[in-house]
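thread from #wetlab-drylab

HS: before we spend reagent money on co-crystallization trials with adenosine-5'-diphosphate, can we at least see a predicted complex? here's what I'd submit
DV: go for it
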Amino acid sequence: MTALLELRNVTKVYSSGMFGRATVTALADVSLAIGDERPTIIAIAGESGSGKTTLWRLLLGVISPTKGQILYNGIDLTNMGRDQRREFRREVQPIFQDPFEVYNPFYPVDHVLAMPVRKFHLAESKRDERRMILDALEMVGLRPDETLGRYPHQLSGGQRQRVMVARSLLLKPRVILADEPVSMVDASLRATILDSIRKMNRELGITVVYITHDLTTAYQVCENIVVLYRGSIAEAGSIERVIKDPKHPYTRLLVHSIPQPNPKRKWGGDVPMVVAGEIGTPQDACKFVDRCPFAMPMCRESAPPLYRITRDQVASCFLYRDAPVLQQDAIGDVLAPAGEPSTPATNGRKAHGEV
Ligand code: ADP
Ligand code: MG
């Protein structure tokens, strides 16, 4: 199987501090594969500092891994030719956490919509270009008369984010990589934006990587989930399984702390957040050992591999050491189970493919 997007043993180390002497391992040996059999929505979830934005930037090819490979359609991002790169730039579109960063304050928002159409020669005529822009705005539930001709600061945060979603749609991408797309917009607009993400997947056949610190929204829109903890995959699999029956002690902690009435409260209650590489445990211990209620001596001696607990659920925890170790090339099977979802959708969430 050639995956649409794949990470092979990816490690990303940043140097920071004075003279770059301190290093932070933002991602440690992460492997991931998103299949291309059919469009899906996959969540990458984790608390602040767990490496989500690093993963997003790596997938977009704007930073390169310290170790390992990132592949799109089987081609290493660092080895792409000019044409392949151009195709990649159109087919894989980012959505930013803070859309304001993307806008030029001196141009009306029409500019960010027209630019990609022109850059990739997508329209035959001016009229065609306008038609495309109107269609894209409609798809995200924006009224052209309330959007076009306005300057970025004249729009609300939610409108700005929806214009960005419309912008990515114009390019008819295969993949959308969205880094916490609703974390800066208020609750009332969150649903609208999540809805357009769902529509992109169902109606336009786009695969969406939805990066979030919020399990509730992940559950609402995603089919599969990867839970990151301090730069490593703690648990991954079908979202029904992971949320309904979390296996990793960290995921359990997270799941049991939803719903979160106060969005400012960090995951995991009052347990202090630890940043990768900061803590006194040996390098090769389980990263969760100091917070884990089930910690065993072996957890301090080595880091657990991912165990395949069921067909579509893996966890990096020695509690499951009787299960087979996940083979590197099988991660795609765990995350993209063929055919129907393994359990019927509940909780008002529609199953993938339903409209
Ligand atoms: P998240 O998006 O989940 O909050 P990030 O990927 O932004 O996580 O960060 C992961 C870790 O890498 C954090 O410890 C962060 O401080 C560090 N980090 C991120 N970007 C840089 C950078 N450019 N230079 C140094 N450290 C960084
Ligand atoms: Mg981030």
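DV: Confidence is low (pLDDT under 50) at residues 265-280, 341-355.
HS: ok that's useful, forwarding to the group
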